[in-house]
Structure formats: structure tokens, C-alpha cells
């Protein structure tokens, strides 16, 4: 699996889910990466207000990243989001983590499990370098969102209202 280039900002990803659901769905994902830097705080606040799903990343080789996620990013997401939000805790750099000392790995996994259990968040371990669980991660997020009626029902209603709108009749031969 080729590794996509890193981005700062957002990308639009279309994902076809005909194998995951009885009906065929085309899902558009907008991925926003605020890169974890405070200088993007105002943009991040906007992302949090509009999101329906959040992938919270922690670097498994850096315990401070989990601490920052626990003390800053997760509380901010909960505080700023106006929509129901599906969350997945993504433990990154699995390939490097596997090379760490067993004592470190056990302690880190215990902390991750405690955080995830406390907030009822699923965990996915990934390696972007090897491509481990990347596709699974996105499929899982899409499924979680699509199975959450609090998220999907308003979106479906909004989409149907756009489709059912009557076309505007032209009153003049000019273009509008």
C-alpha cells in the first residue's frame, strides 16, 4: 500500500462502502490536520465545532503526547464540539513502539487503556511507515459515524431537503 504524502490543512477523500453496507454509500471525508500546534488554535476550534468524527493521535514512542491528549486535546474536543462526535484513539508509530523495552510498552499500553476505558473510546494501533491498520482505521471511523443515529439522521434529513426543493422558475431569459 503506497504511503500518501503528509498534509497540513485538509484533504477530501471519497470512500465507497459498497462492501460494508447492504445499500451502496459514497462517503466524503474531509480530513483536517491542525498538526497539534498552538498557532493553529483558531482553525482547530472551527474544526472541532463542525466535526462528526475525531481521530485523536498519540505517538506511542513519546509519553508526553498521550499526556497532552489527555489534558488538552480531548477536553477541548468535548468542550468545543456542537455535534455528537465519534472518537477513536489512534496510537501511532507501532513499528517503533515494538522496538521499545517491554517495561515501557506495558506501562504505556496500560495508560492508553485506562484513558480509553474511562472515556469509552476505541483504540487503533497504526504504523504509517508500514501501512498497518490505516485502511481499517478509516473504515472503522466511517462505520461508527454511520451507525450513530444522532449524527446520521440530521445529515440525511438535510440532504433530502436539498433534493426535494422545487426548482426556481426563471422569470427572465437572463442567467441568474
Strand % is 15-25%
Residue stretches low in confidence (pLDDT < 50, at least 5 long) are: 1-14
- CATH architecture verdict: 3-Layer(aba) Sandwich
Count every beta strand, where a strand is a DSSP E run of 2 or more residues. Answer: 5
- The CATH C-level class name: Alpha Beta
What is the helix/strand order?
EEHEHEHHEHH
Helical content class: 40-55%
Structural features, described:
The chain has helices at residues 41-50, 63-80, 94-97, 102-119, 134-146, 149-164, and strands at residues 9-16, 26-33, 53-59, 86-92, 123-125. β3, α2 and β4 (86-92) form a beta-alpha-beta unit. The chain has 176 residues and is an alpha/beta fold. Mean pLDDT is 81; it is low at 1-14. It has a single domain (9-150), classed as P-loop containing nucleotide triphosphate hydrolases (Rossmann fold). The strands form 2 sheets. Strands 3-4-5 form a 3-stranded parallel beta sheet. A two-stranded antiparallel sheet has the order 1-2. Helices cover 45% and strands 19% of the residues. α1 (41-50) packs across α2 (63-80). The protein starts with 8 loop residues before the first strand and ends in a 12-residue tail after the last helix.
